[in-house]
Design goal:
The chain is α/β, with parallel strands linked by helices. The chain contains six helices and ten strands, in the order βαβαβαβαβββαβββα. It has one domain: Aldolase class I (TIM Barrel, Alpha-Beta Barrel). The chain is globular. Its EC number is 5.3.1.24.
Length: 216
């Protein structure tokens, strides 16, 4: 049986790239924002802009926690970005085909959020070696670390009791029903609140967060 986390769902808005969107995330009560440094992602952010966002959050109370996201980054890139930017978590893809084993060593001691890509039924036992207080359960898409806008069969995670953020194909229209069905610790969205790849839509972000937080 799934646990009752006895709180409103956590919301993570991933792949923000400008300060105005960062301000909307804070105003609407997002719990986490993801800053994406994956080299091939349309959501890739530069360090200068990321620093401005982080500085703004640090100047405010009740700001979202900052997650640095890596996928197919070199260890050198990870070290440089981590040391340059204050952050709360580091996110990486559990089965990153080239660097997963390196990440596991590089990030020892960090607060980690691993994205575990789902393409079949999974149980808590399948997640035993995945570090972190909670993880992200996302749809599997070959060659992409996430943000594809594709969903997966939610029945595949129906027996998982560990805390997780549900991701994959979520948007303002379906997030409330997804939360009601899956009962996750929280939800994570990237493409579902965009007007085009990498371009966040302010109203979609507002609607997504409000709809997610409306679920009791």
């Amino acid at each position: 049986m799934k646990p009752n986390f006895a709180q409103k769902p956590k919301v993570k808005i991933c792949g923000i790239r400008d300060l105005e969107i960062a301000k909307i995330c804070k105003e609407e009560g997002a719990d986490f924002v993801g800053l994406n440094f994956a080299p091939s992602s349309p959501r890739k952010i530069d360090i200068t802009t990321a620093r401005k966002i982080i500085q703004f959050y640090k100047s405010q109370t009740d700001s979202p926690q900052v997650v640095l996201l890596f996928y197919k980054n070199s260890p050198e890139e990870i070290r440089t970005i981590r040391s340059a930017l204050s952050h709360d978590y580091v996110q990486w893809v559990w089965d990153d085909p080239e660097l997963a084993s390196i990440y596991r060593i590089e990030l020892l001691g960090e607060n980690q959020i691993c994205s575990y890509r789902v393409d079949k039924q999974i149980l808590d036992e399948d997640l035993n070696s995945v570090p972190g207080e909670f993880l992200i359960l996302d749809s599997y898409s070959k060659g992409a670390g996430g943000g594809t806008g594709e969903s997966f069969n939610w029945d595949f995670v129906s027996k998982v009791t560990r805390k997780f953020l549900l991701a994959g194909g979520l948007n303002p229209e379906n997030v409330a029903s997804a939360i009601a069905k899956v009962k996750p610790f929280g939800v994570d969205v990237a493409s579902g609140v965009e007007s085009s790849p990498g371009q966040k839509d302010p109203q979609k972000i507002i609607d997504f967060i409000r709809n997610a937080k409306s679920v009791l």
